[in-house]
User: Fold this.
Amino acid sequence: MIDKKKLFLIIAIPISFTILVFFVIFNYIKSEKALRQMPIIITESERRIYSPPIPEKLEFCGERVPLEDFDVRERIDREFLVNTYWHSATLLYLKRANRWFSTIEKILKKNKIPDDFKYMSVAESGIINSVSPDGATGFWQLMEPAAKKYGLEINKEIDERYNIEKSTQAACDYLKEAFSKFGNWTLVAASYNMGIDGIEKQIERQKTKNYYNMFLNEETYRFIFRIVTLKEIFQDPNKYGFYFTDYDLYPKIETYNVKVNYTINDFADFAKQYRINYKILKIFNPWLRESYLKNKTRKTYLIKIPKSGEITLPDEKLKN
Assistant:
């Protein structure tokens, strides 16, 4: 007969060993995962440039990207290289998106436009109110005739292409019109760059309705691939070498609307009434293009004012 002490040792030793092994493995996996999430700091002499990984499957608005086509794969590879290694630009896109994507997403959803189109605003403008050499303006790079067609006001005092809500709605109106003609979102996105008429001409000329089978100008060629690449990087930034904390991202600043249906002679004086300055008024309302608003028709406009406590203004007098 085995006495109780020996029996205890026979049972306890294997159990203790198993627990110890499990503990070691668990801590190893935990430390490896932590190391993978940490940015790798290297010197110039140690720098190595790697080709960024291309996922086995990619899609835009639920429509598959045919990576088996060598031309498609090489074009997507180019965009991964450019957007992965143009670090400053892509990191700025990621920071800005934290402030603006929630606004864009709501309007896309309201219009039943696929959420992937928010990345088109990144491809178009880098999510800033930029102006192209051709005059395309705002987050969605709308030309004046198209903007007016979809209901935006543009004159000396007002340019609603700079209004994120109204310009996003105008972009949605275009996308819905294009989808009614083409029936797939990839061609819709391509037409945003090339125009509905331009894509229709290429469909007739090349006898195909598949974007990936078309021979197009370089800008439109790159457009879809850039959007798809940005989507992938935004969804898994660490995979492509982008590391940041929530603190690094640009915060969304809450505002309230002031209804204006009258003349404003001086926006600097108007701003002071709401305890802000001219600069802040213009930052939150870039669609106001002058220092005044005549508003002869007494149209009602909504002017955004940051809520109390959302921003801090420097003292008027600089201090040491």
Q: What stands out?
A: The two ends are 88 Å apart (CA to CA).
